[in-house]
Structures are given as C-alpha cells and as structure tokens.
C-alpha cells in the first residue's frame, strides 16, 4: 500500500510539473534591469548572467554577431561602466578566450575610440525564467570583452564608456574563428541557440526599445514579438551582413491632434532640402546601437530651422533653447517628425513612422557634459559615414528580424506605440514561425497610445515661428474678451432704425415692379421663359486613369505632400432628347 501511494504521488508531481511547463516552443522574453543607463538617453537595459558562478551584467539590446561586454581591466578604480557591471573571465570556470579574428563583426557606435579587446566564450543566461520550465543557459556565448576605450565628441572632449550591448543574432547561426588548423571555434548567438534547442519557434526576435523619459516600457522577445508594439503598416525587406538597410524617401513635420505649434500645419521635403545630391531616396541603416539619428548636415539643418535649437559644433549636436517659450509647447504637443520609407522595397508604396518631439527631447548628462543639457538627437554625418537611424529613432519603431526564412532572412519595421501600451505577460506574445515573412500588427490606434500624455494646442493658442525667440507661444498673451466699442448707444439705435426702414422701402418697390411686369405680359400674350431647353448646356466629362483622376498620393497624418493634381478636364457636348409631354407652362399669378 505504501509503495502504491509513493508511486501515485510521483505520478501526480510529474503531471503538475508537466502542466506548469510551456507546451512546445514559445517566444521568450528577457529580464529587464531595474535601472536605466546611458548619458545620451537614458535607455532601458537587459539584465544578464555571465560565467560560472554568474556575474550580473546589464547590456543594451542591439547589434549583431558578438555582444560587447566591458572587462574588469577597463577600470583601475571606479568608473561609470562599473554601474552596469564588469566581466572578469578569470573568475569564471566556463570562460574560454579566443585569439583569432572573427568572421563577421558587430555594428559600430560611431563614437568609441582607443579600444582594446579580446574574444571570449562563456556561459550566459539572457531570458526570463518561466515557472515549470528549466532555466536557460547558453554555452559558449559569443562576446568581445573591451579592456580599454572611451567616447569622444567632435570637439575632442572625452568621457568614459557606459554600458555594453547584447547582440540579437546574425545572418549565420553562429560566429566562427580560425583555430590554427583545428576545427573552427564557434561562438553561440542567442536567438539561434534558443531555436535550435527547441525553446523558441524560430531564430528571430521582436524589439521595441521604449523610452525611459516618457515611461514607455521596453519589449524584447526571442522567437516572437509583442503584437501591441506593432501598429499600422509593416514593411519587410532583406537585411545586410550586420545592418538593416531601407530607403528613406522623406522627412516631414506634422501634428497628430489639435492645432500646430508651428506657423504651418505640416511641412514635407526636409530630407533633400538644400541638397540636390540626395535624389528621390536615401538609403539608410537602422542600427539602434548608436544613440543618435545620423543624417546629412543639410537634412539636420532643415529640421533644426523649424525648431528652437542651435548647433553646438563641439558636441556635433543641436541643443534645445529651453528658455524659448516654444520649446515646452513643441515637446509636449502632438507634433512629430515623420520618416517616410519604401514599403516592402516597393517603388510605388510607402509607409511613415512618426517620432514625437517628446521622444526627441533627450538629455546629455555628466560625465559627457558638465550639466544636464537638452538636445535634439540629429547628428550631421561626415562625408564617409553611412546615414543611420539609431536608438533615438528606435524609441518610436518596432523592429523585428527573422534570421532564417528558407535561408533568406527578413527584417521588419513598423510604428511603435506611446506610453499607453499594455504589456503582455510571459507566454502571451505572438510566435514568429521559421517560415514567416511578415508580422501581424495590432488594431490599436497610434494616437490613442499618446493621448493621455500629449497636451494638444487649442484653437486660441498662438502659432509662432519657433525660429523667432522673442515670440511667445502662450495663449495668455491673447485677450479672450470682445473688443470694446467706441460708438454711443444712441448712434447704434439710430443706425438700426434707419436700416430697417430702408429694407421696407426696397421690398415694397420690388413687389410693385414685379406685379406690373406680370400684368403687361398677360396683356401681350408673353410668358416667362421657363421651358425645357432644346439644346442642353455643355456637360463636363473626363475619362482618365485613377491616378489622373485624383487617386494619387494623399496627405497622411500631417504630411504636406499634396495629392496628385487632376488633369484639365475636357468639355464635350452630349445631345439630349426631349421626353414626351415636355411642354412649357406659364406660371400662375
């Protein structure tokens, strides 16, 4: 009897454990760090455990191939990078140092200098644990450990490194090194390992970096995505070796709700303004490792000309004029910077991602600067650099990648929501299958995700050109009471009586004239010319294609690009037959 009860208990416990564990591969989220990082943001970070025993290291999500981790040798005493955690391979029993050069590289962050590094493999745990499921430990995790380095502004001022990055996969399932004639050493990448181990349904991820300042929580799933982070049109295209290319067609300024804080409702054409060499499109990379939006100087200047900002050459950035009354109005209003791209690499279709100015009101903090400084994250490119939309842009964009779709990978981009966004609990995210070449957006409205945060401008608020610092954008400067009259009450009354008498006399005269005309026409046998016309007036007709008929591009969410103009219409006369019984009748008096 006792043995039967023992067997029954064991079977029951097994059933409970099986019921608690996830059934089959599902998307897996990450553990987010309890603090934010970065002197240019701040930004949300992923909490990881590296080595054996585990060392807690926080990393920004982004990049491809190997992850960047800061080593213990980076700081001889205390430095800023210690806050996010420093990795010491000497203290891990599972660490392996690789000396050869890797095949494939991580993205650059445009600002780092003086880097020394080593390639290290070690055990890593990047994903959140699920009750009933085994913990995930990735062996031979692929990383490059920086032991020296610093960041440098264009003016030459330097500051210490802050935090590394967690790479999110690559075009290959792993990263290989030559090994002196022996079999290649392979570094493990997170999404490919999870897929190969049957933990997730595909070698993929879906990411929205969110915003610390605006309270938008981050979202990162391997093997899937959070559907509430995908709004509107989704563009899908092929990726490059270690970057995501896409054609940028235009940049515009618009307003989602209410009145505009500018002296226009919308303004397009900012991408190529003052630069004929850009042409109809500019290929850009979407790499959210670097912090800024890196565009041609002419484009940044065109955007800045509409805003209360000034360029600071020593930083290579545009600083907000925070004393300008338009500054607060703009960054709290529903105004945005719209980025229009080719949709699915089409030559005729396009989609736009709107980045509210509230997300472009970022702050540089010490040690990068001596005091907190509000800045617009548009950084002019050098002549040899590639335009790149970095982390500042990614605050408003969902970005996903399916690294393996029948051997041909696809990356996705869509509008991301604002602060009013529900967060999916573990296991509720949408799966991305290995063959998927699309992601399904939610039905949420983008404006609704921002409505509780924005301060729409009312109709009685002054619209001021932000380039004039002396002007005010406050409605308090405008009087809401009616203007006072300088005419006496007696004069007003006299004017009213005179006008009434005049109207009576005119009406009497018109009635008398009409009555005499009708009487004369009866006497002469004439009638009013009220009859069906024997020859109709010209009928306006036009036969053209849909585009010529006004079905061309239309204004969308503040875009100032006008719709297609209709061609001049031809006039053609069409004869019309008289219906039976069509007669002229005389009006009865």
From TrEMBL:
What keyword terms does UniProt attach to this protein?
A: Membrane, Signal, Transmembrane, Transmembrane helix
Query: Transmembrane ranges?
Result: 491-514
Q: Where is the composition biased (Low complexity)?
A: 466-487
Region annotation Disordered: where it falls in the sequence? 461-487, 525-589
Signal peptide start-end: 1-19
Compositional bias annotation for Basic and acidic residues: 571-589
Name the source's superkingdom.
Eukaryota
Q: Which InterPro entries would you find in this protein's record?
A: Peptidase_aspartic_dom_sf
Q: Please state what the protein is called.
A: Peptidase A1 domain-containing protein
Q: What is the lineage of its organism?
A: Eukaryota, Fungi, Dikarya, Ascomycota, Pezizomycotina
């Amino acid at each position: 009897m006792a043995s039967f009860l023992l067997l029954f208990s064991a079977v029951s416990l097994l059933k409970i454990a099986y019921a608690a564990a996830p059934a089959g591969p599902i998307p897996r989220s990450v553990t987010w760090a309890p603090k934010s990082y970065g002197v240019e943001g701040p930004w949300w970070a992923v909490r990881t455990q590296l080595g054996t025993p585990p060392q807690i290291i926080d990393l920004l999500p982004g990049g491809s191939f190997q992850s960047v981790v800061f080593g213990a040798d980076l700081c001889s005493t205390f430095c800023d990078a210690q806050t996010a955690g420093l990795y010491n391979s000497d203290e891990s029993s599972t660490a392996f140092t690789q000396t050869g050069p890797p095949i494939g590289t991580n993205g650059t962050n445009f600002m780092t200098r003086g880097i020394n590094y080593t390639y290290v493999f070690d055990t890593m745990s990047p994903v959140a644990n699920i009750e009933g499921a085994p913990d995930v430990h990735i062996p031979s995790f692929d990383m490059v450990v920086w032991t020296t380095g610093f960041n440098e502004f264009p003016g030459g001022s330097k500051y210490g490194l802050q935090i590394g990055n967690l790479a999110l996969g690559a075009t290959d399932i792993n990263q290989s090194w030559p090994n002196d004639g022996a079999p290649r050493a392979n570094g493990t990448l997170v999404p490919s390992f999870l897929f190969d181990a049957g933990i997730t349904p595909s070698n993929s991820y879906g990411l929205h970096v969110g915003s610390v300042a605006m309270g938008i929580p981050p979202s990162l799933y391997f093997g899937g995505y959070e559907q509430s982070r995908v709004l509107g049109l989704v563009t899908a295209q092929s990726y490059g070796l270690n970057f995501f290319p896409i054609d940028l067609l235009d940049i515009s300024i618009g307003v989602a709700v209410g009145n505009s804080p500018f002296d226009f409702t919308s303004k397009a054409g900012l991408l190529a303004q003052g630069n004929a060499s850009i042409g109809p499109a500019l290929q850009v990379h979407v790499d959210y490792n670097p912090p800024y939006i890196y565009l041609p100087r002419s484009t940044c200047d065109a955007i800045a000309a509409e805003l209360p900002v000034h360029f600071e050459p020593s930083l290579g950035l545009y600083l907000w004029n925070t004393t300008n009354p338009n500054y607060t109005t703009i960054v709290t209003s529903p105004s945005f910077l719209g980025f229009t791209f080719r949709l699915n690499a089409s030559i005729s279709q396009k989609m736009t991602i709107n980045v509210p100015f509230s997300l472009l009101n970022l702050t540089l903090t010490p040690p990068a600067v001596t005091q907190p400084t509000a800045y617009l994250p548009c950084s002019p490119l050098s002549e040899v650099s590639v335009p790149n939309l970095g982390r500042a842009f990614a605050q408003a964009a969902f970005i996903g990648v399916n690294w393996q779709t029948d051997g041909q990978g696809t990356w996705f981009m869509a509008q991301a929501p604002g602060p009013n966004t529900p967060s999916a609990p573990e296991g509720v995210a949408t799966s991305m299958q290995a063959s998927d070449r699309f992601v399904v957006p939610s039905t949420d409205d983008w404006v609704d995700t921002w409505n509780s945060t924005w301060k729409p401008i009312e109709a009685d608020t002054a619209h001021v050109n932000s380039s004039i610092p002396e002007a005010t954008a406050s409605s308090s400067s405008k009087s809401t009471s009616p203007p006072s009259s300088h005419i006496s009450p007696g004069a007003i009354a006299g004017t009213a009586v005179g006008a009434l008498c005049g109207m009576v006399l005119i009406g009497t005269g018109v009635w008398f004239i009409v009555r005499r005309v009708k009487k004369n026409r009866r006497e002469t046998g004439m009638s009013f010319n009220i009859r069906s016309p024997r020859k109709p007036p010209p009928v306006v007709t036009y036969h053209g294609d849909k585009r010529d008929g006004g079905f061309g591009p239309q204004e969308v969410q503040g875009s100032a690009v006008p719709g297609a103009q209709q061609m001049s219409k031809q006039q053609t006369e069409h004869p019309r037959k008289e219906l039976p019984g069509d007669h002229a009748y005389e009006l009865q008096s």
